[in-house]
């Protein structure tokens, strides 16, 4: 079952996750990272950039795969996850841009692209360390409640609550895409190591349901309990219902 690390605050939880990612990158000659977006990982990426600038980590031999991308946003759209990753991380480290894979939001055949994305992960030898956030409704990536444990990378519809939560990054709610490409739960569970970062009281219920309920499609993150090497890194607020 998942290891749970509770840190005093968001800054120390973010630093802890950065340490785990840096350790994974330094552990072997070439590494495949699974990366996440949203508000939660921002401080972790800033810590990693600091470590890179201090010469503590090198991304030359790292390949990365992002969990998800909105359909309809090009990689240069300010709210696309590709743009987020470039701004928060890729532009500040020496990762090879041709080895950073974020699902294409504006391709002409998203379903085909999703299947190709899944194959690329397998061709890369699988993900060594997958960073996850968690949605308020317990979603991981864009696997909303009802997603099956063996789901693969595919096109999904977003729930109204997710659209509302993510509207904060857009000028208005009706600008938020309604569909996305997401790695599936089955895809995520094939990572060798998974680190889920959650901070703030808003995630406390999702964390409780993920760690205490038996795995169910109602709480996608609860399937993580089946994985042999999962670590939940929480601040006290996100752990407050445990
Ligand atoms: C989005 C993303 C998830 C992210 C979640 C939480 O739906 N698809 O990958 O974990 O929201 O985001 P935040 O960290 O902003 O709370």
TrEMBL record:
Alphabetical list of PROSITE patterns matching this protein: GLC_GALNAC_ISOMERASE
Classification lineage: Bacteria, Pseudomonadati, Planctomycetota, Planctomycetia, Pirellulales
Residues passing through the membrane, by range: none
EC number: 3.5.99.6
Keyword match Hydrolase: yes
Catalytic-site annotation from UniProt: 68 (proton acceptor), 137 (for ring-opening step), 139 (proton acceptor), 144 (for ring-opening step)
GO MF term (any one): identical protein binding
Designated gene of the protein: nagB_1
Protein name: Glucosamine-6-phosphate deaminase
Family classification: Belongs to the glucosamine/galactosamine-6-phosphate isomerase family. NagB subfamily.
PANTHER family: GLUCOSAMINE-6-PHOSPHATE ISOMERASE
Record pathway: Amino-sugar metabolism; N-acetylneuraminate degradation; D-fructose 6-phosphate from N-acetylneuraminate: step 5/5
InterPro entries cross-referenced by the UniProt entry: Glc/Gal-6P_isomerase (IPR006148), Glucosamine6P_isomerase (IPR004547), Glucosamine6P_isomerase_CS (IPR018321), NagB/RpiA_transferase-like (IPR037171)
Keyword Hydrolase: yes
Top-level taxonomic group: Bacteria
Enzymatic reactions: alpha-D-glucosamine 6-phosphate + H2O = beta-D-fructose 6-phosphate + NH4(+)
GO cellular component: cytoplasm
The entry's keywords: Carbohydrate metabolism, Hydrolase
